[in-house]
Design goal:
- The longest helix is centred in the middle third of the chain and has 13 residues.
- The protein has a single domain, classed as Rossmann fold (3-Layer(aba) Sandwich).
- The strands form 4 sheets. The chain has a 7-stranded parallel beta sheet with strand order 3-2-1-4-5-7-11, sandwiched between helices. Strands 6-13 form a two-stranded parallel ribbon.
- The radius of gyration is 19 Å and the shape is globular.
- The chain has 283 residues and is an alpha/beta fold.
- It is 36% helix and 17% strand.
- The structure holds NADP nicotinamide-adenine-dinucleotide phosphate.
- NADP nicotinamide-adenine-dinucleotide phosphate (NAP) binds next to helix 1, helix 4, strand 5 and strand 8.
Length: 283
Amino acid sequence: MSLLIVGCGFLGEQVAAIAANAGLSLALTTRSAERAATLAARFGPTVSTINFETDDAAARLAEAAPDASHALVLLTPSACLDATGQPAPLRRVMQGLAALPRLSRAVLSSSTAVYGERHGQTVTADSRCAPVGAREQRLALIEDHWLTVPTQRVVRLAGLYGPGRIVGATGLRQGQPVDGSPDAWLNLIHVSDAAGLLLRCLYADAARVELGADGMPVRRGIYYGWLAAQLGLRPPVFSGAPAARGGASRRCDPGPTIARTAWRPMFRDFRAGLTAAGLPARR
Ligand SMILES: NC(=O)c1ccc[n+]([C@@H]2O[C@H](COP(=O)([O-])OP(=O)(O)OC[C@H]3O[C@@H](n4cnc5c(N)ncnc54)[C@H](OP(=O)(O)O)[C@@H]3O)[C@@H](O)[C@H]2O)c1
């Protein structure tokens, strides 16, 4: 079993660690030489530096992992689209994957932001998207393009957190007010749970679209208040301005995904996951 991870950043490194422990052989790509050196120090020499904005990226991807049997594409949305908003970089990824003779399945990570504002309603992997805003439309374009290949799948992830990345912590520490409504629902998933789901969707009987979240949505006011207290900071102030991202209100239910894949989050909610992620204790 040989796993190719395209765009091995915060999430990809978690996947790579799990896969390496399980004895899978790995091929990893990242854009910067600095990041490639970090990955090579941890996972060995099978790291390639590929920028999908460049014309030769498809050929370089095919050369990077000639034996790959499975692939995870974990690029950020901005890495999938060119300056005009067209999915040319993603097309290069797909061309590179199409040239791999042993590849049986490829999964793309997307975001639950694609569901848009749902006024607190529950969404699952099977819910329809009605992308209205620019961000949702970009995500929908990327997913639609990726799903033109019948064997390819999408996993939509809630907000990722884990060691070294805690949603909202930087702004709170800097004393910034929090944009968006305190009553809106926030959906989260620990990065190791997201990594486990992505690997499961490579092998299990997953649907073409699955959803990764801990299934315990929290109101943003509760989350930021708890986080501020844990960090020893004053309670957060909400600015009243719309949030640039993460402000839409919906409740993500991973139930159908759990039923199909037998995946389960290890961290049942943000309190358990953030405590395990090494959140500084209350001062
Ligand atoms: N973070 C979240 O809260 C969240 C929530 C929902 C879904 N997701 C999804 O999860 C996935 C991974 O997120 P992440 O937090 O792990 O992202 P990340 O840490 O920013 O990693 C992104 C990776 O893509 C590479 N990359 C960026 N632009 C590139 C380009 N033009 N060509 C080639 N490679 C490029 C980066 O390389 P360099 O670092 O070397 O530049 C890095 O390896 C994404 O699909 C994201 O949409 C994330």
